[in-house]
Amino acid sequence: MLILALDTSTPRSSVALLDSEQVVASATLGREQRHGEFIAPAIDFCLTHVGAQASDVSGVAVGVGPGLYTGLRIGIATAKVFAAARNLPVVGLSGLDVLAFNVRSSRRLICAVIDARRREVFWGMYRCSPGGVMREGELRVGSPDKLAGEILASGEEVLLVGEGALRHRDQLPDTMTEFATEEHAYPYASAVGLLARPRFIREETQRPDELEPIYLRRVDAKIGWEQRGRLRGGEAGQAHHGDDAVAGGLA
């Protein structure tokens, strides 16, 4: 088994290849708004590094958000095209799930946090379970103050993980909380692949055309279109479909 894993949902774009035992190649770019230039060469680099061809890949795993809108769409589109061209199964995973999985040994309540821009964050709450983590409740978006209130309301010791937590650390509670290190700040493709691998083994996969981004917030472009439609007396809703009316972020 050779799995291609991608994540472009945050400022850290990454690609990885995993065999049945370990990560065998990976590439990461830390520059924002360069996802489109990075992703294809990074896939070629990883394949060349292990002496493999695209035809050797047996499945594609990809981060589906929430995250930066443009990067998120690029990663999912790349996964769809690569898998569809080779009739491969895919697995889509939330970056918040991946962040929580990275610290699955913690005995605390885990709060995974990704910066959402516009003075907001995306977050999810998790508890350790045999072999991984289990999400509690829905994924959320809101201000760091709103997240702080939810943490305090839990009345529990909380481990905060993700670059969103580190970026907004001053606005989050400093009692009963611990912050994971920078090492675990992003949902790197290598971790996406590790979390997805058991799903490939159990054949809990999707078709490429079933991949959809996780959207938690309206996109600036869509809001702008709706406002223009109202100003002109038109029905902005006719210009797009419902599934496109909300989004996770903006790159």
Word description of this protein:
The protein is of the alpha/beta class and 251 residues long. It has 2 domains: 117 residues, 2-Layer Sandwich (Nucleotidyltransferase, domain 5), CATH 3.30.420.40; 89 residues, Nucleotidyltransferase, domain 5 (2-Layer Sandwich), CATH 3.30.420. It contains 7 helices and 10 strands. The strands form 2 sheets. A 5-stranded mixed β-sheet has the order 3-2-1-4-5, sandwiched between helices. Strands 8-7-6-9-10 form a 5-stranded mixed β-sheet, with helices on both faces. Helix 1 packs across helix 2. The longest helix is centred in the N-terminal third of the chain and has 18 residues. It is globular, with a radius of gyration of 19 Å. It starts with a strand and ends in a 20-residue tail after the last helix.
CATH superfamily of the largest domain: ATPase, nucleotide binding domain
Helical residue percent band: 25-40%
CA radius of gyration is 19 Å
Label the structural class.
Answer: alpha/beta
**What integer is the average pLDDT?**
87
Report the principal-axis shape: globular
- Model regions low in confidence, pLDDT < 50 over at least 5 residues: 227-251
Question: How large is the count of helical segments?
Answer: 7
User: What proportion strand?
Assistant: 25-35%
Q: Provide the domain count.
A: 2
**Ends: how far apart?**
33 Å
**Total number of β-strand segments?**
10
> How would you sum up the major sheet?
5 strands, mixed
CATH fold call of the largest domain: Nucleotidyltransferase, domain 5
Name of the CATH first level of the largest domain: Alpha Beta
Biggest sheet: strands side by side, in what order? 3-2-1-4-5
Query: What is the CATH-assigned architecture of the largest domain?
Result: 2-Layer Sandwich
Order of helices and strands: EEEHEHEHEEEHEHEHH
